[in-house]
Every structure is written in C-alpha cells, then in structure tokens.
Amino acid sequence: MIVRYKLHNIILLVFGLLLSRCANPVMPLGGEKDITPPRVVNSIPENYAVNFNEKSITITFDEYIKLDKISQQALISPPLSENPEYRIKGRNLQIIFPEKLRENTTYSLFFGNAIVDMNENNPLESYRFIFSTGPVLDSMSLAGKLTYAFDDKAAADAFVMLYRTELDSIPRDSLPHLSKPYYLARADKNGEFLFRNLRHEPYWMYALEDKNSNFLYDKGGEAIAFADTLVFPQYIEKPKPLKVHQDTIMAIDTLMLADSIVLTVADSLQRMQQLADSLLAEGGKLADSVFSTMLDKHYLRLFYEIDSTQRLLRSELLADGLLRFAFRFDARQVHIKSLTALPDSFQYVQAYSHKADTLFWYFRSGIIDSIQLHITYDTLINDTLQLSLIPKQTAAQQRASKKDDQPVKIAFTTNLQNKRLDIGKPLIFNFSEPITHYQMRDSSRFIAGTDTLYNQLQFIPYDSLGLQYTLDWEPFKPETTYNLLAPDSIFFSLNEKSNDTIALSFTIPSTGDYGNLYLNIIMEKEAHMIVQLLSSKDEVMREEFIEKSDKISWELLPPGKYRVKAIHDKNANKVWDTGNLIQRLQPEKIGYFEKEIEIRANWDLEESWELNP
C-alpha cells in the first residue's frame, strides 16, 4: 500500500515526476491571482503588550498596504474623546493617539476589514491589536447577537455598548443619552458581536443604530436596545498551541498523493499550518469565529421608540385641486380651518389615509389663488399657514398645455392584476378626485362568458367620498372571462372632469389556480398571539388572532412562497408594539415558522407549529 512508503521514497517519486514534466516544454502560463491578505511581521509594541505609555503604535506588514473606510470600520475600546490618527509609511501603519490614555486600562483596537493590500485589495479580516497601560491585560469576554425586533433581521454594523456600574450618578435609562460607553463592539453582517479583554465586573448593556456616529442615543430615527439586567463577562482559558506529529503529516500527505500525485509534502505541511492559523490568532488567542462559540450568548433586539408628540410634518399642494397635510400620528383630532370665509363653490372634501396620519383636501381649483389656514391640536400645535393653490408648471408643461385644447380626463385605476380578478373580489375603480355625480348612458356592453348584455351596466359608490366606485355585478364566476365597455362622460368629478371610454377585459381564475394552507397552532398555555401570513415581499396577506391552540385555514392563496410570523401580543391590542427605554418596556416578541411555505396551485398544505410565548 502507498501509505507504507518511506518519506524519502515519496519525495524521490514526486521529484521524478517534476523532472519528467520539465522535459516537456509548454507555453508559460500567467501567475495565479494574489488572494493572500497582508500579514503582520512586527509591531512596536508587540500585540498584547503591557505597561504601554507611548503616544503611538507602529505595525509592520509583509507587503504594502492601504486603508479602506478606516473611519467607518475601526474601533477603539474604551473609546477616546477624539479618534486616533492613522498614517501609512511604506509597509508600516502608525496609530497616533490624540490624548493621554487612561491608566491601568486594557485597550482594544479593532480594524474590521479596513487593512487591505495595495494591488488586489485583499483584506486582513477582523484584525485586533490589544495592549494595556497597566501591568496586566484584562481577560474577560462577552458575546451575543443583535437583531431588529420587528422582523428579526440581523442588525449589521450597529454598535453594542457596555457601561460600567460606577456611573451611578447618571440614571441607568439616561446612560445612552448622556454618556459614551466604556466598551464598544460592532455587530457583523450576521448580527454577531464579541467583546474581548474586558474588566472582570458586571455591565449595563445597550445597542444602538448610531446614525450620526456620536455614540449617543439621539431619540428619533435611531434604534435602541437594552438588556433587562446586568451582564457578566466570562473567562475562556487560553488554549495550548497545536502540535502536529510528523507521522500524521506523512500519512495525510501520502493519502493526498493517492488522490493527486502532484501534491508535495510541502503542500501538506502548508495546509496543516493554514488550518492551525485559522483556529489560532496572534499570541495563541482563539480566532473570533471559534472563540465566540465558546461563550454564552446575549440576545438584544433593536427597536424604534415612538415619539408621542404630534407634529405637522409637511403641508403642500400635491396636485391641481389637492392639498396634503402629513402628521406624525393619527390626525383625526387635528383641526384645520380657513382664516377667511371660503366661497361655496370651493366645495372642499376631506379624506384621511389608511393610518389617518395624512389628511387630504380635495377642492375645486381656480376658485381662489391661495388659502390661509389655522391648524390646532390640543396645546401642541397652533400654526398658521399660507399656501398657494396654483400648481407650479415647468416650461415644457406650459407649452404642452397651450398646444393641447382637449379637456383633461379624470384618471382612475382598478384592482385588476394582469387582467385577473381574484375570486370573491368586486371590480373597484379608484378615481384621482371625488366623483360628485354619476349618470349612465346607452352604448354600454358587458360580455360575461358567452352572454352579452347591452345597456345594462350600473356602478355604485364603494366609499363615502366618491373616490371609489364598483361595478354592480355579483358574483363573478370562476373560470370566466369578462369584457366591459362603458362610454365616456358618465363619471363627473369635483373639478368637472369626466372619464374617457372604459374598456376592460379580465378573467376570474378557477379554484384550481389557488392553493390552501391549514396551520395547526399548538400552544402549551393561553396567550394573545397574532399569526400573520407574509408574502415574499413581507406584505401581510392574511392575519389571525388566537389565544390557545387552534387550526388556521387560509384558503384560495395565489401560488408562491410565503412566511408565517407570530407576534406575542402581550397587551391584546392586536398590533405589534415597540419598546420604551424610559419605561423599561421591551418590544413585543416575534417569531417565524421554521421554514418557508410554498403554495402550489390546486394543492392543500398542512403544517403544525408549536408556539411558546
């Protein structure tokens, strides 16, 4: 057997093969692309040095380097009041500290992937430089995962922050507002974070989506997370260096030769060394990827707090005859009045958005040129606005309007999708402004399958404002094609616009074009739960509210891929609630069914899910 060959015989065999190859000249090939990252060959002081009292650090590499987004990727912990300065001189990276460092403190410099080689941009991944201004290095560690509370997605590049309990002069809930953290870590693309070389003491832990890079929580636009209790770092014993016996190397090498005779002993040794290097970092420290798996995980969930102060965010003339007022919250208690009497011909109509945080005013254009409004809400809003009611036109629009003497038609859309209307749905027309009156005329035609009806079409209002109308025809039958032809000028809007000729063709799918999902929810104890079916774009397609084990039936689902989400609705208000830092309220917990749901046409799918609130 090959494994019984002596080492010198293997070397002679490989050497002979290489000579035989050299005897047959071939066209020289280009060298392989350099994929090797820069390697540290020296540093002043050494990594993991103690009693450091200099103003700078110099790290020397085996090749020329450059820095890629160093200000975004590099971190120093504990943080300084001013970031270090980074300079490159040949193969040296110099880190200059702008201030005196704290006494008896272990510092960690984390470079992310900012150090790359000059030619191929190969990064030295997750490089750390550790040193202490005292006689010992702190040796405790802490790891965890950071996600967004609403959808459980990884919070890549967000900061995790540790505060020492000695800051008892600042209320705990004000720490991220008023004080910069003592230790910082950045979550990676998977939301994983790791602290190393921590002091042996408990900490308050927060996480922050720091949009302005000041390491402080600026409420409004930034996400925050917090641990409910103090967290305690752990100590992981330093591993012993790996030793590979020569006999093992020879055995592996000879096995490799059996598979590919051209591999040399040197190749095997190099690969073994690479394996050892991947597990061990400098100074015999375990690499972050291995080290973090040995620590208990702390889980944090980022959330956006709700600012309870009602505000007018925007007021504008959105289109000719349409004003929009956007507010921070539900605006149904906001009062908007004209400071002058409006003529009866102005005829404005109010409409709210789905969440009622936006108010629309539809009005007859050309009656007045501007309007002065008074907006009030409790004692929080007391504003006066002056708005122009004349739309701004570009030069091209002005030229086009002079050339075109045709009356402007009212725009509308329908709820058809790709000329299909889902089973059980009415045909809805959505108009761009309220319809004031409707008058059907002759010359309409409606073809339902093989039946043709003349002059028998009718439309009825679908809302109270006249923005929606529906065809008075129910029910539409599955597996049937419909053709609708209605004359122009049957709908008349607030601004005396009328519709153009309506010509539609659509089909009602068969029940076999849909699939059904039956979900058995198993709960050990009663709890208020919201169970949602989400599309591939995370849109809520169906929703159920349950309090105990139940079977949910979602039928007539279009084929496609879905996810199922559950929300522990602790306050039973049937919506997901975010957290509150001052009140120490965590956001409501969510979870996803373990696998993606694929709905197929004419197919029933049954799944079971054990929900533990």
Describe how the helices and strands are arranged:
Layout: H1 7-22, E1 40-44, E2 56-61, E3 65-67, H2 70-73, E4 75-77, E5 85-89, E6 92-96, E7 106-110, E8 115-117, E9 128-132, E10 140-148, E11 159-164, H3 175-178, E12 183-186, E13 192-198, E14 203-208, E15 224-226, H4 246-259, H5 265-279, H6 288-291, E16 297-302, E17 312-319, E18 322-327, E19 335-338, E20 349-352, E21 358-362, E22 370-377, E23 381-388, H7 395-403, E24 412-414, E25 428-431, E26 435-438, E27 445-448, E28 451-454, E29 459-461, E30 468-471, E31 480-486, E32 491-493, E33 502-508, E34 515-523, E35 529-534, E36 540-546, E37 550-557, E38 560-568, E39 590-592, E40 597-599, E41 603-611
Parallel strand pairs: 10-16, 34-41
Antiparallel strand pairs: 1-2, 2-6, 3-8, 4-7, 5-6, 7-9, 10-13, 11-12, 11-14, 14-15, 17-18, 18-21, 19-22, 20-21, 22-23, 24-25, 25-30, 26-32, 27-28, 27-31, 29-30, 31-33, 34-37, 35-36, 35-38, 38-39, 38-40
